[in-house]
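Support request from a user on the community tier.

User writes: "When I paste my structure tokens into the form, the page sometimes reloads and wipes my input. The last time it worked, I copied everything first. Here is what I submitted, just in case something in the input itself triggers the reload:"
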């Protein structure tokens, strides 16, 4: 009887122990479950990888288009403007007729000079004949040496007159040629200052028209003097390409090349003047136009890049949020430069590292994150500088 009581008591204790053990496990499970419920879920964020890609090393500036050549057409003789042989704004070729000044006074002057020359040529022939007649007579003392000297002097004087007449004739012919004004270069004409019938003055202060060479064409711009060393370095390696954007609605910029670096730095501004030249065969560049200029010094073939939005500032420098095993960590980085919305990273990341390009407000070092589904609305972005990153 006693043995049965002890067995029942032992069985009761065993059952109580088992109940207590299972109760403890349930409490632990409930605690874990409660802990999991109290822990915030992973933050859904966009993710991207640091990538190596060709990135040009560029300088940006604002430039002014200017002709390689510009010629102000001024008359070299005066007179009545008889003809304007083009319309304002026309494209003219070198040698094309532009203006005609009344040639009649100059034709008359040319005819007069011709007549004077012929008169003096006849006098020269007579003087020489007289000298040649007296020369043999002087050898037989039939003519005095004084008479022979006078004949010789007369012949020389007549020859000088003929030479002067020839010069006046040449000048009259040149002035007559000036009455027809031709284009000295290929280019586009501007505003005509005077209409037909007006009297023009030789070498007047106001040009009759200005002709600008349009192709090729130059763009003048300035860059800080701190870029001079890089410009000279890459210029020695070959031609430096320049992209010129005239903001004319076209997608592609105008291709050009760097052709000039000034020989001095402007002390007032600390800048140096450069010139780029473009073929401008399509006429997109116009003299006086303001354009955006991009100088492509070289192309870094394997530049490590992340979106510039991923880079955050702090008191200790720049950093990004790098994702590893579902956790976002603060990663200090060194940004070499920014290019077209990309940050070129020189230290701190490796190709393939996962970073967060759009940083939410509540993202912190050690936050659990998950990749945001395509098309899912992302969390609010950081609009102010976050607190300094640890480490």
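"...and here is what came back when it finally went through:"
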């Amino acid at each position: 009887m006693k043995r049965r009581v002890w067995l029942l008591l032992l069985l009761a204790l065993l059952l109580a122990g088992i109940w207590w053990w299972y109760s403890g496990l349930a409490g632990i499970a409930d605690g874990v479950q409660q802990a999991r419920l109290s822990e915030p879920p992973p933050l859904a964020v966009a993710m991207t990888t640091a990538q190596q890609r060709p990135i040009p090393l560029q300088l940006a500036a604002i430039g002014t288009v200017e002709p390689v050549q510009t010629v102000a057409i001024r008359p070299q003789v005066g007179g009545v403007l008889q003809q304007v042989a083009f319309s304002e704004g026309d494209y003219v070729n070198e040698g094309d007729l532009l203006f005609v000044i009344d040639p009649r006074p100059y034709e008359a002057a040319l005819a007069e000079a011709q007549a004077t020359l012929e008169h003096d040529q006849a006098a020269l022939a007579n003087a020489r004949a007289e000298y040649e007649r007296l020369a043999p007579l002087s050898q037989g003392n039939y003519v005095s040496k004084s008479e022979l000297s006078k004949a010789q002097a007369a012949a020389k004087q007549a020859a000088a007159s003929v030479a002067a007449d020839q010069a006046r004739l040449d000048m009259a012919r040149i002035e007559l040629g000036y009455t027809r004004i031709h284009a000295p270069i290929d280019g586009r004409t501007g505003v005509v200052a005077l209409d037909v019938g007006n009297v023009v003055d030789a070498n007047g202060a106001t040009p009759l028209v200005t002709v600008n060479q349009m192709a090729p064409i130059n763009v003048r711009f300035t860059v800080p003097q701190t870029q001079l060393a890089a410009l000279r370095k890459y210029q020695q390696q070959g031609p430096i390409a320049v992209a010129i954007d005239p903001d004319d609605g076209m997608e592609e910029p105008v291709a050009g090349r760097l052709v000039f670096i000034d020989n001095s730095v402007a002390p007032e501004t600390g800048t140096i003047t450069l010139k780029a030249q473009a073929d401008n065969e399509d006429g997109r560049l116009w003299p006086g136009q303001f354009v955006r200029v991009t100088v492509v010094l070289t192309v870094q073939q394997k530049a490590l890049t992340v979106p510039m939005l991923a880079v955050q500032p702090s008191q200790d420098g720049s950093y990004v949020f790098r994702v590893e095993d579902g956790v976002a960590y603060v990663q200090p980085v060194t940004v070499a430069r920014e290019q077209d919305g990309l940050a070129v990273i020189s230290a701190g990341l490796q190709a393939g590292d996962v970073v967060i390009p759009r940083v939410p407000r509540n993202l912190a070092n050690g936050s659990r994150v998950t990749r945001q589904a395509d098309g899912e609305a992302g969390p609010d972005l950081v609009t102010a500088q976050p607190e300094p990153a640890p480490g």
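Agent notes: The reload is a front-end session timeout and is unrelated to the input. The mean pLDDT is 87. The CA atoms of residues 310 and 357 lie 4 Å apart. Escalated to web team.
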